[in-house]
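User: quick one, fold this
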Amino acid sequence: MTQNDPIPASAALAAYAESLIEGRRVIVFGDSSSRLAECLLERGARLVHVYDPDPGRVAESTTRNPSRNVTYAPLGEGGVAVREGAFDLAIVDNLAALGEPAPVLERLKKTLSARAAALIVSPNPARSDDPSLEYYALYDCVASHFDEVKMLGQTPFRGYAVVDFAEQGEPEITVDAAYVPGGAEEPEWFVAVGGPEGLKLDPFLVVQLPETTESPQKAAFAQQRIAHLEASLQTAHDELSELRDQSQASRDTASRVADLEAQAEKAEKLLKAARSDQERQKRQAEEAAHSADKALAELSTAREEIKALKQQLGNADRKDDSKAKAQISDAQRARDDALDDRDRALDELDQAERELKQLRTDLDRARRDLKKASTELSQARTDTNNSKRKQAPGSDARPPTATSEDAQADIERLEALLRDRAHTIRQLERDLKTAEDLGRRLGDEFGQAATTPGAAPPDLAQKNAELEAEIATLKWTVQQLEGRLNESRPRSG
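Assistant:
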């Protein structure tokens, strides 16, 4: 549906029922290609659902639908896919085009709330070739579904308004129908308004439509007239061709041929005039549609500007939220502090690794010295024992010499050296314990730092575990060396 589509005659009902439409949900059974849904939105409808028995028209209208407040769906025998009582007003734009009336009205009634009304439009059988209900039959059909029914007639109106531009106040409107035989045109449509009791509507309303707007009956009549003229022209051509074949036999036939040629020429002129009039009306409709499209574009631009202003207002509100800024700043500082703690923990872990490496070097040196001292002490003890055996009573041994005294001095020196090494090993053991405590503390701090943003990679945690294992190994080694030192000390007596 676009602005190029003509305003349908049923749009007059949108103006007539404006008090029932504004702010309401409206359901329409009828032609989805007309602009009736758009007219209902212009009169204040909040939501419009259009159900059309022609699926092709539904698909095309859905593709061209510019509004989110209008929905198109096919009208099948299974009814409509909405909950009962969902709508406040219903419009049927042509009851004769929907098949059997009673099932249609029954489905329509289920979609309406308890206080809702319905406008049921049916063509006047006296002015339409479509099979439709007569006045009283339409009344009875609608009355079987609604508490109160008002019968209206929609009559075409053509005329001019003569207005005093200098009149003060609201002018009094006078309608002069003296030029119309009988005082009024024959109604094109019968309208049955069904609803609850006490429904109030205007008794008489004149709705002005654009000059280019034509009722479907007039458009159909013009099309039929063109088709009739084309058929007459084709018949005249056929008769002319036949008479020309017989023109040699009779002068009367020649005269008849001349008459038929004149009639054919007249028919061609009439057909040309009808087509020209149709093209003129089409151009006028396109010009009106172009103006409407321009207005719609301006409205869309205004909506976009409003949306941009709302977005700017939301951004300004967010910028003014100082509390949120403070929270973000605190979170960033906390993250930076956690990163600094992690870096310090890594530096301390590297320092502990260097100290452990130095401790291992010192421990290896102490092992070598202890081994050397143990060897020398064993040799000195052997020499001392040999010297004592030589000096035993009854033996021919000679008095102790300077050599035995030197051996005793070596033993004392070696024992002093062993005591010094034992002291060194105990000091190394204390250093290893301190390093072990430092490694455990750094491991804990490293675990806490790992839970903060930008935590250390997992391989550093593994490295810390390996250092702790080496500390345990060194501690065990110190204990072994201490045991060996105790065994190597000389026993008293």
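User: anything notable?
Assistant: Residues 224-290 form one domain.
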